[in-house]
Amino acid sequence: MKLALFDFDGTITTRDTYTKFVISNANIFRLILGGFLLSPLILLNKLKLMPSPVLRPVITKLAFKGTKVDDINQSAQEYVHKYLPTVIRPNMLHQIKKHQESGDRVVVVSASISPYLKIWCKGLGIDLICSELEEKDGYFTGSYVNGDCSGQRKADSVKNTINLDSFEQVIAYGDTKEDHAMLKLAHESYFRGKPFSANDC
């Protein structure tokens, strides 16, 4: 059996899905407060002075702290069924299904958050490792269970969850430098559709 590891945003999709989901689930108060508090951090991120793995948890905390799990999950269902199909790359969906038909284990490994990714992956019958939102007493705390699933943490999460030695071949797909550590785990890697080499970093 082979193992196929797929990043989600930008690899399976044509664009970032995290930001749109956050905005679509934040009420007007949170949007205004977020715009006021986060605009300096977002500017730093645009200037490449603050990495996305540092900014994302801050945005997530502001957007989801104290929100009802049932409400967000219901919104995630609609997001998966109405929006995600419009941004999924047909060639990557075909590649996922090709791996499945070959009997390979397919895992999405993403820094995006769990509410909608769980639904999407379950619908395709594939596994998921992602930035999982922490739940307590029916509410999201706004924190991640195991941190932002990007960069080295993405690779470590794969190794801590999956016994890579049990697969004859590992194949990985990514599109940003946050995927490099995961791509290096694989025997065969693709970066933005082209073969990836550790020398490309």
From TrEMBL:
GO cellular component terms, A-Z: cytoplasm
Name recorded for this polypeptide: HAD-IB family hydrolase
Native source organism of the sequence: Alteromonas hispanica
Transmembrane feature ranges: 28-47
PANTHER family: HAD-IB FAMILY HYDROLASE, PHOSPHOSERINE PHOSPHATASE
A Pfam entry, by short name: HAD
One BP term from GO: L-serine biosynthetic process
Gene Ontology molecular function: L-phosphoserine phosphatase activity; magnesium ion binding
Alphabetical UniProt keywords: Hydrolase, Membrane, Transmembrane, Transmembrane helix
Endpoints of the signal sequence: none
Taxonomic superkingdom: Bacteria
NCBIfam families according to UniProt: HAD-SF-IB (TIGR01488), HAD-SF-IB-hyp1 (TIGR01490)
